[in-house]
Design a protein that fits this description.
The complex is a heterodimer of chains A (673) and B (328). With 673 residues, chain A is of the alpha+beta class. Chain A contains 26 helices and 19 strands. In chain A, strands 1, 3, 4, 7, 15, 18 and 19 form a seven-stranded antiparallel beta sheet that branches. Chain A has a six-stranded antiparallel beta sheet with strand order 8-11-6-2-17-16, with helices on one face. A two-stranded antiparallel ribbon of chain A has the order 5-12. With 328 residues, chain B is an alpha+beta fold. Chain B is built from six helices and 16 strands. The interface between A and B is large, with 60 and 52 residues.
Chain lengths: 673, 328
Amino acid sequence: MKAWLSGLPREKADIVLLLLAAAMVLAPHALHLPPWLSVATAAPLLWRAVITVRGRRQPSLAVLAPLALLGIAGVYASYGTVLGRDPGVALLALLLALKSLEMHGRRDIFVLVFLSFFLLLANFFHTQGILGAAWMLATVLVLLAALLSAQYGAVQPRLAQRLGLLGRMLALALPLAAVMFLAVPRPDGPLWGAPHEGAQARTGLSDSMQPGAIASLALSSEPVFTARFSTPLPPQDQLYWRGVVLGDYDGATWTRRGAKGRAPASDSRIDIALEGPPSHYAVTLPASGQRRIFALDVPRSIERLPGNPYVVSSALEVLTIQPITSTVHYRVSSQARYRLQAKLPLAQQQPWLALPAGSNPRSIAWARALRGSGAHALAPADAIAAVLEHFRHAPFRYTLQPPLLGKHGVDDFLFTTQAGFCEHYAGSFVVLMRAMGIPARVVTGYQGGLRNASDNSLSVRQSDAHAWSEVWLAGRGWVRIDPTSAVAPLRTERNLDAALPAAASPLTAWRALAGLDGGATGALAAWRQQWQQAEQAWSSWVLDTTPQRQRAMLDRLKNLPATTLALACAVLALLSAVVGALAWWRQTRQGDPLDALYLQFCRQQARRGYSRAPHEGPHGYAARLAAGKATPKAHAAIAQFLAIYATMKYGNANPDEQSRARRSLRHLLTQCR
Amino acid sequence: MRWRTIPWLPARPWLGAQRVHIRPSRAGLAFAALLLALWIAAVNYRLGLGYALTYFAAACAIADMLFTSRNLAGLALAATPGKPVFAGSHALFTLRLINRSSRPRHAIGLAASGASAAPGLADIAAHGETAISIGMPARQRGWLNAPAVRLSGSFPLGLFVAWCHWQPDARVLVYPQPEQDAPPLPWPAGTIQQERQPDWPDSPDGTLELAGVRAYQSGDPLQRLAWRQIARHDGEHLFSKQFQPGADAPAGASHGSLMLEHATLHALAPEARLSRLTAWVLQAERTGLPYGLRLGALTLTPALGASQRDACLRALALHDLPQDRTAP
C-alpha cells in the first residue's frame, strides 16, 4: 500500500490526500445525515478516487449538474425544505462531494478546503465531546497537509518532510490559537435572531409527558447539569431533581397545569415547613434553551441568576424569565425533610383530582373498588400502600421498550401489557389515586446522578430522567411516592442500568458493552468514571466559555499575588531569552558552510602572519601565499584548498559535489598549517 | 556610477526581511471571509469548539503569513553578466537565487518587466542555489540593463503573497544590428586588381572571384553593376556583382589591410552606418583580412581575431552614446 502510494504521481497523490481529508470531514456527518445522503456523498469521493488512480477523465458538467439537482431535490424530500441549518449542512456536504468531481486547478483545491472547514464546524452542532474534538484536529491536520502539498512548485519533498514543515507551523499556531481562545472576548448571545434550531437539537424534559417520552431521553447519555456539594452527598434515593409538575391529563398526555392559557400562580405564598440539616451545592447548567432550572427536593433558597430572574410556581417548579442560552451557575440549599402545603383548601385540591370523563374505565372502576366506600373505605395512606403492593406483586416489568398502548392507555398498561417505564408507573398511579379521590400529580425531573467522589459532585445525564408522583395527604401535605421503585427498586437506589433487566434487548446489551451507561462495577466502571471526569473538565474548560467566565478568569489572574506574578514574568523572560539565543545561534551557524571553512582558513593563515587583505580574492590570496614561507606540503595544501574553494564558490557545482568538496577542504585545512 | 532604472530599487543583492512585502492573496481574502463565517456560526450557536476551530484556523493563517515572508527573506541574489548580443535578437540574463540558510525555499515565482517569457516556479534547496534565465529582446545598441525583477511566492499555504523587487546589477552589451545583405567590403585600391576586369573576375591570377549577383544597394560602387543581369530584367532592377577572395588567394596574404571608415559612409543615416560597419566587421573577420576601424575620434589599428572583432563591435555599440551609458 505504502509502495503503491509513493509510486503515485504527485498530482494524483495530492488529490488522494485531499479526498481523504474530505472523507474525514464527511464521516461524522453520516451520524446525522439521512442514510441516502451519506451514500450520495461517499459515492462521488470514491468515484473521484477511482478516476484519479486510473487516470480517467472527470465527468463533464452535463453529468454533474443533473446529479446536483437530484441531490437538492433529495434534500428537499428528506427535510421538507432546503433552508435552515440541517438542510443547509446536508447541501454543503453534497456540494463538497460533487466539487471533488469538478476539481481542476489550484483554485478548486482552495474551494474544497474552505468548504471542508465549514462542514467541520457544522459537526459541532451535534457533538462537542472530546472524541469529536480529537477527530476534528486530525481532520484539520490532513486538510492542511493537503493544502500545503498543493502549494509546492516543481519540487515536492516526501510526505514526512511536508508534515515536518506543517508541524513547525503548528508549533507556532497552537499557542497563538490558545491565547486567542482564552483572551479574545466573546459576544454574549446570538448576533441576530435566536438560534431556535440550536435549542431544538437538545433533548430535555418538556412541559408534557406521553408514554415513551422519558424512555427516549433515557437512551441519551448527554450531560444535563452537574452539582458540586459542599455538604455530604445525600443518599441516592433522595436525589430527586424536581423539574416539571404535570397536573392536567387528557387520557393520553400529561401536561403542565396552566400550560394551556392559565398563568401559574406564582405570586401566592407557598406554605412550606422545612426541617433537618440542609444540603448546600452549586449547580452548573449548560445552555438548554429552556426556562427550567433544577434543584433537589425541596429548595430552600436559590441564588438569583444575573440578568435572568426566576419565579417559583406553587408546585415548586423554578422557571427563569428568559430561556437559558448560556451556561449558568447557581447555588442552592435544599432540605430533604419538608411539609409542603399541609393545609390545602378544597378548591385548590380540585384541580389535582380531575380525570377526563370516559377514559380508562376499567382502571377507575378497579381503583374505586379497591378503596371501597363509606365506613369501609381505606384511609388514603392505606390505599396508597395497597396500590403499591399491587405494583409490587402483580407481574409488572420495567423496560425501556414498552409495548404499544391503545386508546385507554392506563387500562392497557395495568391489565394487559404490565410492562413500562417510569412514566407509565407514575402516570397510572396518579390516575388510580385521583380515581380514589386522593389529590395527586406527576412530577418529572431527574433522579440520581453519577457520583464523583473526588470532588464531591454529581453529574446528571439525560438518562437520569425520571417521573414520579406526589399525593396530597391532609396534615402532611404533598408526599412524594415513586411507584417505579415498587417495581424496580434498583432504579432509585442505584441507577437506570441496575434497574433494567440484564440484556433485556440487543440495544441495552450493546450499550452495556460499549460502556455508554454507568456500568455496575469493575474496571469498566472505573474507566467510565475517569472518562466522565475528563468530559466534565472538558466541558467546563473548553465548551463553557461564556463572557462571564472569561472575565472571571482574567480577574483571577489580576488577583494573583505579586510574587507569583513576578516569578511568572521572570520565567517567561528567561524562556524567551533562551529561545532568542537559540535562534541567534542557529542563524550564525546557518551561514554557508563553504564560507565558514574559508573564514577558518583565513584565520589560520593570519596566525601564520599572512592575513588576507579585505580586497583580496582567493586567487590573489593564493598567489601571495605561494610566495610565503611554508613547507612544500603546506604549500601544496594551501594551493589546493584555494583552488577547490574558488571552484566551489564561483563555479556551478551540484550539492553532491559541494558536500564532497567540503569534506576535502576540511581535510586540507589540517595540512595547511 | 551604478545605474538604476527605478531609483528606489536597491541593487544590494541581499533580501532583508524589511524588503519583503506581504499581502493576502485572493484565496487569503476568501479565507478571511470563511473565518468570519465560522466565527459568526460559533457565536450564534455558542459552540465552544467552533471558537476553537476558528481561532486555530486564524492562527494557522498567521503562521502562514510568517512562513510566506520567511520563504523569501534572507535570499541572496546575484546576476551573472550575459554575453553580448546583436540588436534584434534576445539578450539572456542569468539570475542566481542563493539560499544560505538550512531551510529549503519553495515555489518562488520570478517575473521580469519586459521579459519575453516568464520562467516557472523556482525551488532552492538548503545551502543551494538556483539559476534562472530571462530573455530580453535587445532592440537598441548600447548597454542593455537587466530588467527589474519581481520575486513572489505564496508558499506554504497560499493565503498570502510575499513579494519583493530586485534590480539585478547586470547588463549586456548590444551590438548594432548587422546590415542584411550588406555590400562587400570596401577594398582599398591596390588590394583588388580584378575590379577593373569585371568580365573575367575568376581569372587565376586575381585575388577575388565572383561570388554571385545580388540586388543593388545604395553605396555599391558603380563599377560593380552587373549589366548583363540588369538587361535581362528589362532595366527595372539594378544588380551588382559580389566578390569574395579567390580560393587560391592565401588569407591575410594581401598586402596592407582594410580600414573601415565611419566617415566615408556619410550618405547613410547614422544608425545605418553603424549597421553596415558591423556587417563589414563580421565580413572582414570571416575573410581573414586584418581590419581596423576609424570611428570619429577613435581609431582601432588593424588586426584580426576575436578580440579585435569584439573591440570593434564594442566601439560601434557604444558610439556616440551619452557618457553614463558608455561607462564600463
